[in-house]
Amino acid sequence: MKGLLCKDVYLLCKYCRSYLLLMIIFAAASVFSDNSLFQFYPCILFGLLPVTLQSYDEREKWTIYSGTLPYTRAQLVSAKYLIGLILIILTLVPAIAAHAVRAAIQGSADWESFYGMASLIFAVGLLSPAVLLPLVFRFGTEKARIAYYFVIALAFSMSTFLGVQYGFSLSFGSGGGMWLVVAGALLLYALSWFLSVILYEKREM
Amino acid sequence: MYALEIKGLCKSYKGFTLDHLDLTLPMGCILGLVGENGAGKTTTIKLILDMLRRDSGTITILGRDNRKNLRLNKEDIGVVPDEIGISECLNARQVGRIMALTFRNWDSAKYDDCLKRLSIPDDKRFKEFSRGMKMKLGIAVALSHNPKLLILDEATSGLDPIVRDSVTDIFSEFTRDENHAVLISSHIVSDLEKICDYIAFLHKGKLLLFEEKDRLKEQFCIVHGTAQDLADISPAAIKGKKTTPYGVDAIVARDFVPNGMPTSPIDIEQLFIFMAKEAN
Predict the structure, then answer these.
(1) Whole-complex ipTM
(2) Exposed site from A77, A98, B64, B192, fewest CB < 10 Å?
């Protein structure tokens, strides 16, 4: 599977470099703004990158060519889920850094709210690929496009809602319940992964 | 042991049926799968690679069922599909790195040698490659992990005659090793005639003929005559015929040709065209 990950990294470096810049800009903006969109947007965007990669694979006929290589369908699916997980974890780095800078500027390090924020970013990031990838592996990116827009709208609505209800994360954080949100998101991601493998194994190339 | 053994293979789509296909490819040989577009060549290859689910039948690759231990099977197979699905932003060097992480038996020196031999630039992006160049890169990848079986789907179409010639030389060279075999599908019959040991004709999902190439040439000839001349020959011996204002040309089993009737040797392309038309 290392070859699949290597190929996806090459694709990300080539096609998605601008996303990195966007992530840095949004992290910088989040230092000076209370709007949580700046914190959530990069993770939603990066969470959707496995879908983008799969659409490149389909357009460039890699999905068919990879069928001739010594990979199982489960490995082909797993590569996308692993990439997704790595990317979402990566988006936490600038978010954490921005939060630390903000805390330093304001002179108040509220680690409870920080923990709540990081957990929510992670959970929201996992949500989009968890919903979309099974549809993509079953129907292809073209047919799953409607669902793609629906999930984007849902993710942004959620992030806006969570922004308005910022106390939500605080109360969860202080209550120590955020691990439930993270565990729930991880469980959903794992179920989605499992479902995608089953659906992709049934698909004819 | 056969490199490839297909028995009673069936697959139905809407508007197409691959009907009880039986093929065997001995080691050290090249089998040419001939058929017009839509005859079932790519379907057969996808079934061999388990990219499509068969309805019935069995496929054995190098003595192993194609669906059991698929990864191990694919380590031993080099495949050149009709469209090389390498990502457009990659260059040949990056493709080499990906494949080195993909195949256990990847031979980087062999890959570099193939790139040189086939004049493939290693720093140019795949997007900028011509169709011929893309095919050549696909061939280089297929050869560089020491496969025992090469499966080529229309690998020579889109190549200019000089490149086609050098590519067919590579395939012939590959089968000098008796542990190697090649399955090649094409509708450019002249290429197959040059290199194949066995020929299989597919027509609308049915196997019209499967025979050693040299035996085909020995068995059949073209008879030139009138409709009346042909009436003297057993219909079962006539594989196909073409009527022109100047008479009738027919492909006939040599044993059934009456003495004195003018004949000429066949080439595989003629045989295929006559048989396909007859089947229509």
Answers:
(1) 0.86
(2) B64
